[in-house]
Amino acid sequence: MIDLTVIWAGIIAVAIVAYVVLDGFDLGIGILFPRLDVGPERDTAMNSVAPVWDGNETWLVLGGGGLLAAFPLAYAIVLPALYAPIIAMMLGLVLRGVAFEFRWRDPAHRAAWDVAFAAGSTIATFAQGVALGALLQGITVTGRAYGGGWWEWLSPFSLLTGFSLVIGYALLGACWLIWKSEHGLQDKAFRYAAWLAPALLLAIAAVSLATLTLEQQYYLRWIRYPGILLTAPVPLATAAIGVLFFRAIKQRREAQPFFLALALFGLCIAGLGISIWPDVIPARVTIWQAAAPYRSQVFMLVGAVIMVPVILAYTAWAYWVFRGKVDAAGYH
What is the DSSP string of 120-172? Predict the structure, then answer.
């Protein structure tokens, strides 16, 4: 019998990766927004993500809905544990979306909408990082329910992951502007990327080292022999990509920095997978313990087989249509 639980874990993992890859850079644009000059620079940055930003969030819906449908026990435990950061994330996304639309339709208050756009993007990003850190550090489970308190999600480690994700998304935003913009804005984006890249590498190192102290399984998988033979390539590859990134910035490559930054995120996600697999709640609940009944998984898989390719197709089409450079007037 095919293990549909593993397949559904893969579908949700793909949705999470797609969300980080696609929505990360437009959240990063919002984080960098206060550092851009009022006028053409901000208009160009907004135009660079205007055709795709709302479609990028489809993957967040797929990931959250898939978790509820395929792993209801995990959803029932994780949601109460992370109510505060999840609510903050959703409010941040709403604030960002409203500001995105109204800054064009309400020019008289554009300065206020710019502040709201930057604040919403930063809050949503920070909350996502905090939620990830809270999940990694461990959730108290009593029987089949969340057994911790209201503030269990808040810790130095979760704050570290929150700030680290803000740095990471800001780097993605800067690299996106390098690729999509020209002249003065592109020069500014190159400078920001050169500052943010070492900060992100330091943040990755700090989070990685701190993670080893959270759960014994993390330490055993990463440090103890023979597991280290499989895990050692991840930090080595991270260092190598970091070198390639700085070379691309120095040579003023336009597309390479963005894809190398995505590669850094990909390695971080791979490291996360190594740390927690096959748990859906680290060291507490496995994917099989949290899974929905087999027939339910089959029923949902039919819809996923139809809709996921559709989502991929219209996403790819949108990026293909808007593949050129952009300025304050739009794509050209």
Answer: HHHHHHHHHHHHHHHHHH---EETTEE-S-TTTT-SHHHHHHHHHHHHHHHHH
